[in-house]
Amino acid sequence: MSPKTTEHHDRVALYPLWMAMGSAVFGVVMGGAAVYLALEGRHEEAELASSPAFASAESICCEGPLAPAVASGPSLIDAVARTRDTVVTLRSGSALLGAGVIINASGVLLTNYHVIAPLLGDSRRDGLARARGSQLIVRLANGRELPAALLLGEREHDVALLRLKPADSAEIFPAARVGRSATLAVGAPVFAVGTPMGLEHSVSSGIVSALDRTHVLANRRLSLIQIDASINFGSSGGPLFDLDGALVGITTAMVERAQGIGFAIPIDHVVGLLRAIDEGGGARRSGRIGVEALPATELSDATYRLGYRNGLVIDAVDPGSPADAAGLRSGDVIVELRGRRFDALGSGVEARKLFGASFVDMVRSLMPKERLEITVVRGEEVVALSLEIVAANAVEQARIDAEELLGLQLDPTGRVREIVQGSEIAAWRGSARLRGARITSVIGRPVATIEALGAALADLRQVVTLGRRSAISVTFALSGGGSIVVENFPISLS
After folding, report:
1. Which has the least CB within 10 A, 18, 266, 404, 482?
2. pTM value?
3. Would residue 321 show up in a list of annotated catalytic residues for this protein?
């Protein structure tokens, strides 16, 4: 449906590659705001949120120092024996839901959001999801069963956090040791534990087949570990361990028409997500690295002499940003991301735009405090750098959400700087009129500042289903005076 507009309060329904954000910044989208949930009603929300298990990200995700992932170690038999009691099966009534893994001795466990999604209602007004009458039951390795409550669910990143509810709240449970997925290498031996086809505590072993796989889940940006260990229906939400018994991922997907292809969410990403939620009080925050890269800028001669065909020239580095701290400089040419080259995309401006889009997707898929390894050509040298992602502020977050949901690139004051090429609003004949305009309301909600706009867009993101499109009403104050209301303004999140 084409946007409908009316003048006076005209009602109206933009993507060159937005490589800069704020003062030359790349935004990193954390994902939709985490939803705090209680499976037995509102009266438990305060109790769960104030429990020691939810006091901090560190207490949630680990019982000791985070362990490095290893490519070799004890035998598989030893590793399975050490981790077996941390793996659980989730069910509701007689229905099998999937698997999970205990990550805290107080009974906090991790699984996929999609595993427990069938039990949840969807309250769009207050952001809470609730059970639809069925009780969530967790079966431990020894056959004991306990009820569980949902502490939080994060749909975009397919992560859910539960808490066991034993009769004695002081009971101690066996907890998995949290590893480091960042140090996993292709070929590293791993094993998964789950409940495929209802067969509890089934173990499958294999290797890491690939890293940083995207375009697999509904959230196409989410970077996954590819494994060749067998993953079947019922395995979702279960742990992926290395042979040292450290938790390095949460299995989340399989490929139905293929054999020996499974995927897991890296545990570093999960820990980063939990930390960001904890530190932000549940508020959604993206991250940033602080650079402006221009796909239109031609690569240096040295870049081609060193054998690279594609890259991104850094135009500016934000002082004090992660890029600045890592030593990235204006004029550097980014040629590799986590060891991967993009020469297969070709050369020239269009190829650099594709590379830039991949760069944006990768950065926006990361959590604050995750690290991104890049390779740059500096002069005649190839230099490796490591950057730590940091959280975006409210203005930067608003600009990211406006770009992704509305297809509008905003300047730091909140005015429309450009319309995103390829976005649905860009196809509207009157879209050029929006340049220089300022958004004054979203679905009738006044937004007097860019921070207020950011809050409205954050709420909007919660109700946009991944991969789905819908339309809303957006009001603009035009740069030349007057206003315009865009009815059926297309929004999307892919």
Report:
1. 482
2. 0.66
3. no
Looking at residue 14, its amino acid is L
**Catalytic-residue membership of 228:** no
Assess whether pLDDT exceeds 90 at residue 305: yes
Q: Which of 236, 473, 483, 492 is catalytic?
A: 236
Reported as a single tens digit per residue, the pLDDT across 15-37 is 333 333 333 322 322 333 344 34
Domain 35-278 in the same topology as domain 4-21+393-492? no
What fold characterizes domain 4-21+393-492?
Answer: Pdz3 Domain (2.30.42)
Is 332 one of the catalytic residues? no
- Examine the pLDDT at 41 and tell me if it is beyond 50: no
Name the catalytic one among 114, 157, 269, 423: 114
* DSSP per-residue string spanning 115-156: HHGGGB---TTTS---B-SPPEEEE-TTS-EEEEEEEEEETT
CATH of domain 35-278: 2.40.10.120
DSSP 406: I
> Please, what is the end-to-end C-alpha distance for the chain in angstroms?
19
* Domain topology for 287-391: Pdz3 Domain (2.30.42)
Where are the domains positioned within the chain? 4-21+393-492, 35-278, 287-391
